[in-house]
Structure formats: C-alpha cells, structure tokens
Amino acid sequence: MNPSRTLAGLAVAAALFSRALPICAADPEGARPGPVKTASTGHVSNYDEAKVGTYTLPDPLVLNDGRPVTDADTWTRIRRPEILELYRAHVFGRVPGNAPKAVATVEGVTPGALGGNAVRKVVVLRFGDGPGAPFIRLVIYLPARRAAKVPVLLHMAFNGEPAPTDPPAPSVPKGILGEPGPISDIVARGYAYAIYRYSDLQPDTADTRTSGVEALTASPGGSPAKDSWGTIAVWAWGASRALDYLQTDPDFDGRRVALIGHSRLGKAALWAGAQDPRFALVFANCAGEMGTALSRRDYGETVDDMVDRFPYWFSPGFRRYAGHWGDLPGDAHMLIALNAPHPLLVTGGSGDQWADPRGEFLAEVAAGPVYRLLGRKDLGVTQMPALDQDVNAGDLAYRIHAGPHAIMASDWQAFLAFADRYLR
C-alpha cells in the first residue's frame, strides 16, 4: 500500500480533515473536553481542532501494488482480502487454527415473559471441557406470537443478564436505558433480542492470555507471535459462534441477524462484521479509537493511550505503532469499508470527546466510496449533523447524541428505525 495516495472521490471530505470546525456549537457539552492523559510516549491528549493537524488516509480503493480498484469484483476478490490481512497481521491478530468448537445447550425456555408477550430462552455455548471452560450465555427474548422465523438483534454486552425491570428502575439516569435494549419494544416489532456477557468468553484483564479461549489455543511455553489474536479478535470470533447457533435454531432467521456493540465491544462488532459477511447489519456505539474514529486524527484517545492501557486488546505486534500512527497500514474508514455492503450505524456522544465523535463521522465519510462501488448508498453528507439529528438515508448511518459515553434511549430508537428498513 502507498500511504501517500489520497481518496480521489473525497475532495470535500479531505478539506474537512484539516479544518478547525466546532463539534456542535449549539450544545454546551460539545465544547467540554474529555480526560487529559500523558502517554508513555509523552503525547498529551488534545481536544483542540486547531491542533489536530493534517494527515493522509490510505486509500481503500488502491491495491497493495498501486493499481486502482474500479469494480466490485476486484474489491471482493483482491482488495478486501488485502485489507483483512493488514488488520490480522498488524492490529487484531489471527484466529488460530485450533480455535475450539462450541457445544450448545438449551438451559431453559420460559413462556409468559414480559407480561406474556415474549418467550425467554437461555442457551449456553461452551468452548472446551471442565467447569472453568469459557462460554457464551445467550439470554434470548422472542415474540410469543410469531408465524415464522424471526430476525435477531444480537448484543455483545458488559453484563449479559437483562435488567430485572423493563423499562429500567427509576435509578437509571434519564435518557439512558442501562445496558440492555428496550426489550419490550424490540419484541413488539417482531424481533428476537439476544444478549450475552463478553467476558465469560475471554476476560478483559491484562493477564487475559492465561485464561479463556486464548489459554485454550496458546502454544505451551514461549511468547505469543506478533500476530496472535488479542481479546477484540476473540470477542469478535465469539459473536460469529453465537451466529452459528442462531442459524441452526428453527426459532430464528439466521440470515437476518444484526450485531450490536458499545465502546470496546463496538470495536469487536466492527471487526466481527468485517470478517463475517453473514451479519446483516452492525450497530457500533461510541467505538472510538481503533474502532470507528480515525487514528490519524490527533484528538481524544490515541494509539499511544491504547498501547499503554489496553495492549492485550490487540495483537502483540500492534504496540509498534505507538508514536507512529501514520505508519498504521489502515485506519477506521478501512475497517468500516470492510463491513460493506451490509448496513452500518455509527453513533457517538457530545460528552464523549475521548472517543472523537467527529473522527467517527469523518471515517464514515471516507468509507463511502467503497459502499458506492458495491452499489450501496453512503452517508450522503460531508458536514457533521447537529446533535440528535439522524443521518440515515443511506446504508451508512450516523448520529451524535447529546450525552455521555453510553447507548442512549434515542440511539436505540434510531437503531430500531434503521434496522426496520433491512430486517423486517
């Protein structure tokens, strides 16, 4: 790849990259900076658009040998595999050949949930043997009255068991549903909702390689290879194993499964969608650095911060890019482009400047040429929208909510409206 090449069809967006534009001048939270951290490289967090600097994005539509990609067949056969290989070799790592198989067990089926409107089904996918084996515990709510297989909203979450009340208890801050989605609304629309806790599969700790699925696949003795998978790759792989199950269960339409992730799990959802074209739709909320936000933009969290705090999320070789963001073989727009042609909704928060919501918007703009090449619609705009104003006329969609690093109630409603176009 020649990183000096620019996107031919993005003259307007390229101008935006180096201009100092207010995030949302009408919103008082828009100007509020996020946390200021000093990385081990000496870099200090920046929240001033005037100091973002200029940068050049690698072109997703130029092959490694410099030839342009001008048709969908070349993208599918050559360019897409090239970009996947770059991410596997340098960022997230590879799924090892000895990755374990899942054994599914239906633990229980409870009719009459949600006031009689849903059936609650619990399915456990186990990987390996013994009581300490890693697992995925899918808690699924599906419509009690259904004439056919139903589409599924699959949610990788920090806490898998839904809240005991729906809607949530009054202690939940206004506008934030808590982690689970609006289950009653989801079921009423004709969807099944499946949620599971990510850390049951692979712990989110610095010593994670000694447990979970990574421990099952590690070679005895010695250090992991530079392209060994990190936890984001494991969590993404687990989402595909959940999809494997959903495609075998006669209750569900495995061709219509949307994947949902927030924050680090938004990164995992993106990587899962990039590798597994069976997902029909992806919703990545506040996924930020090394997810939906451009890394070459010096704003909020950076590669340096990730290497310092969460190196285990990535392959061991990723740390070489601390202090050298411009040497990254790809950027967020390419990770987004790997999700084409399936629809993708990206959301950010005005109070979550650490995740760089403007950088998330610009990444979707820069991924647009790939969606257009594949006959899909891009964002259709190059100016960042106002708070809580949905940009959703195309197969790429974006919104920035007024509020913090969370999936807001308004985000869920925007996602459900977006999903209805494709899944119902």
How many angstroms separate the termini?
40 Å
Let me know the largest β-sheet: 9 strands, mixed
Number of domains: 2
Shape: globular
Residue fraction in strands = 15-25%
Secondary-structure content class: alpha/beta
Explain what this protein looks like in three dimensions.
The protein is α/β, with parallel strands linked by helices and 424 residues long. It has 2 domains: 11-94 and 287-405, no CATH class; 102-239, no CATH class. Helices cover 27% and strands 17% of the residues. It has helices at 11-18, 72-90, 113-116, 183-188, 212-217, 231-246, 264-275, 303-309, 332-337, 357-373, 409-423; strands at residues 102-112, 118-127, 135-143, 150-157, 192-197, 252-262, 281-285, 344-349, 396-401. Strands 1-2-3-5-4-6-7-8-9 form a 9-stranded mixed β-sheet, with helices on both faces. Helix 10 links the parallel strand 8 (344-349) and strand 9. Helix 6 (231-246) crosses helix 7 (264-275). The two termini are 40 Å apart. Mean pLDDT is 89; it is low at 1-31 and 163-177.
